[in-house]
Amino acid sequence: MDFIQKHIWGLWLIRPKLIFDERGYFMETYMKEEFERRVGTIDFVQESQSCSVCGVLRGMHYQQGEAAQAKLINVLEGTIQDVVVDLRKDSNSFGKYETVELSAENKLQFFIPRGFAHGFLVLSEWATINYKVDNVYCPDAERILYAGDKDVNILWDKRCELWKQSEKDRLGSSLREIEVQL
Asked: Using one digit for the tens of pLDDT, what is the confidence trace for 152-168?
């Protein structure tokens, strides 16, 4: 596996090594020892999947306080624009975002430490996303940063200009509003 440190400290893009032959391919998607040597000790306790159609924008979600989650994201089918915003108050990159394209074709994985809002936009006809997290989901601790917040100014992919969002995502808070919540 290749581990690529992204511009914002703590974010990692992981490229699994693929072994191809006439039957197809094989890849290791997670190796605890190698992951911990590169990224640090993370105890993944839950794995989930979601499937969404083209234009769905989920996020920007984060868990607050003791319920915060680190995530390892990969796409099983389709293509997404995956985006995170740094909400760590002591970070030099507070309020900055990072974006990567994840797809079933490129097989990249994105590691997101605790302290980030996370969301994605589906760019293909549909996409299936897999998440490993180090803390179970806690509805009472969930918060949402509005994906269109002008202070963060995320450059969303233009292939899907009409977003399909849940009501709670459309009503997410601005970066200025969430500063007091963290």
From this structure: 999 999 887 788 999 99
Using only the alpha carbons of the chain, give its radius of gyration. 16
- Per-residue model confidence (pLDDT) at position 160: 76
Residue spans per domain, the chain: 46-178
| 61 part of the active site | yes
Q: Is the pTM value of this prediction over 0.90?
A: yes
Centre a 10 Å sphere on the Cβ of residue 21 and count the other Cβ atoms it contains.
Answer: 7
List 62, 97, 131, 146, catalytic entry: 131
Amino acid 141 reads A
pLDDT at 181: 53
Fold for 46-178, please state it.
Jelly Rolls (2.60.120)
The predicted pLDDT at position 7 comes to 94
Q: Of the residues 7, 61, 137, 146, which is catalytic?
A: 61
What are the structure tokens assigned to 32, written together? 């605890």
Q: Whole-angstrom Cα distance, residue 95 to residue 39?
A: 22
Distance of CA 58 to the CA centre of its chain: 10
